[in-house]
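Inverse folding, one chain.
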């Protein structure tokens, strides 16, 4: 087996592996910073809660030392209580007690008072929190109101305890670090696992590529789909369908070569013999007769070559070459009959034409002319002098039928099943020909989703050739017609425009 060099990837082409890897890692790179932000938010909330509770207890402890005696506030705050507030080694803690007008009664001057103190909620016993900035440092402040139901609320006192945020920041950073640092290990590990998983997941593609590369150039057999991933099944089905089309085209080419070699050998051998005989003749009459035989042989060989080329063209499944367009079959047949009139007169055959209403089908004009020409030629070859050949188009509902009727030698039902085979000729007919005419008719009719037949003439003489086509209806589609066509003509899925 010849070694094949792996083709270089075109410029700008990306691998499927890299594409999938990018689409999997790109969201991860986007989510990672987002997860850090979310972690920071929740870590700050978690770190704030226990220290807020401690501030709450400190505020309540000071508030319990404030009393009202005869409507006047009395604050009994021992030095031990102040020492407790100053015992924090990390954060600075401040407190003060003041009235609602902002007059400080006791406490630290470092703790700023609220600007809208008079408008704050003042439910007794409820502890509130606010954020302030003192000397360039952020501070968390807890405050509560102390009062007596016997005195107005305007004379109630405010107890506030403030604390810097160093312990909270440290705890928050520890929580964030405990969450983020493991990700520096997990994410690279995840990338490695994703890479490994993709490598294993794409192994069927690699195996499929190796299987295709290992195939011989002439191997057109379908690729087996056993143990193939579901996602690769449509690709393999499409590839097998392409192989089937290629095999069909290759078979058609091989048949054409075999047929051409087989059929051309005899006329070329005859021409060579006639030429050799002509070279030996000295009698002008015999020489002229030999040249006439050579001319006849050349005509037959040319006719055979033309038929072989037409058959090869009809067998080729080239959509561009076989473009189908709406065409009036009756107009085409009338023009073709006019071309065949002189040849019919030379053979003393009455060639007739019966007009029909507009009968459009979707077809290829060149191939349809070849089809009708072969039917007319076949009818005239098997009709004797004085015979009749009649051409007509019959429109019946959703179908258009091309008919060529003759009163020649006819054929049997058994022969009607064989006449469309290549090189088959009716025994005892005496007619010359290559036996390809009706084979060409069958190929062209199948290309146009039609059905060709040749049956004995019900009148008792000759035969009737029929080709039934689906009628063309522009931009219409009737599902019930699809089933009718499939049943009557033997094809499926009519082209767009057939009804």
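Residues assigned per position:
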């Amino acid at each position: 087996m010849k070694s094949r060099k792996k083709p270089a990837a075109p410029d700008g082409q990306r691998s499927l592996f890299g594409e999938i890897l990018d689409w999997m890692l790109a969201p991860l790179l986007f989510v990672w910073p987002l997860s850090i932000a979310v972690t920071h938010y929740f870590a700050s909330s978690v770190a704030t809660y226990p220290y807020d509770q401690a501030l709450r207890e400190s505020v309540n402890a000071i508030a319990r030392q404030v009393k009202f005696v005869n409507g006047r506030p009395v604050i009994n705050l021992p030095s031990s209580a102040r020492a407790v507030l100053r015992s924090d080694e990390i954060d600075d803690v401040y407190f003060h007690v003041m009235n609602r007008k902002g007059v400080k009664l006791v406490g630290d001057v470092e703790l700023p008072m609220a600007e809208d103190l008079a408008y704050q909620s003042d439910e007794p016993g409820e502890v509130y929190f606010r954020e302030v900035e003192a000397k360039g440092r952020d501070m968390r402040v807890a405050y509560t109101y102390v009062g007596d139901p016997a005195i107005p609320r305007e004379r109630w006192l405010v107890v506030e305890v403030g604390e810097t945020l160093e312990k909270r920041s440290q705890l928050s950073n520890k929580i964030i670090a405990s969450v983020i640092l493991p990700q520096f290990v997990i994410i690279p590990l995840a990338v490695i696992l994703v890479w490994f998983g993709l490598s294993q997941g794409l192994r069927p593609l690699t195996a499929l590529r190796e299987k295709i590369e290992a195939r011989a150039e002439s191997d057109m057999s379908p690729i087996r789909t056993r143990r193939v991933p579901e996602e690769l099944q449509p690709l393999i089905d499409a590839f097998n369908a392409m192989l089937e089309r290629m095999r069909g085209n290759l078979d058609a080419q091989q048949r054409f070569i075999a047929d051409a070699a087989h059929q051309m050998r005899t006329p070329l051998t005859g021409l060579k013999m006639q030429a050799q005989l002509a070279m030996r003749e000295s009698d002008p009459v015999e020489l002229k007769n030999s040249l006439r035989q050579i001319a006849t042989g050349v005509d037959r060989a040319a006719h055979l070559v033309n038929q072989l080329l037409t058959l090869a063209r009809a067998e080729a499944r080239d959509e561009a070459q076989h473009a189908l367009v709406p065409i009036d079959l009756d107009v085409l047949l009338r023009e073709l009959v006019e071309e065949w009139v002189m040849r019919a007169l030379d053979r003393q055959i009455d060639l007739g034409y019966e007009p029909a209403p507009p009968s459009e089908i979707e077809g290829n004009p060149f191939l349809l002319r070849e089809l009708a020409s072969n039917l007319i030629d076949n009818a005239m070859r098997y009709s004797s002098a004085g015979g009749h050949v009649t051409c007509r188009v019959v429109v019946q509902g959703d179908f258009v039928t091309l008919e060529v009727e003759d009163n020649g030698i006819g054929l049997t039902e058994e022969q009607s099943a064989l006449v469309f085979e290549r090189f088959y000729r009716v025994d005892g007919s005496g007619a010359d020909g290559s036996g390809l005419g009706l084979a060409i008719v069958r190929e062209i009719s199948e290309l146009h989703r039609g059905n060709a037949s040749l049956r004995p003439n019900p009148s008792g003489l000759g035969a009737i050739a029929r080709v039934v086509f689906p009628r063309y209806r522009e931009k219409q589609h009737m599902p019930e017609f699809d089933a009718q066509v499939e049943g009557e003509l033997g094809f499926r899925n009519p082209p767009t425009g057939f009804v």
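The chain has a mean pLDDT of 77. The chain has three domains: 34-179, 237-317, 322-489.
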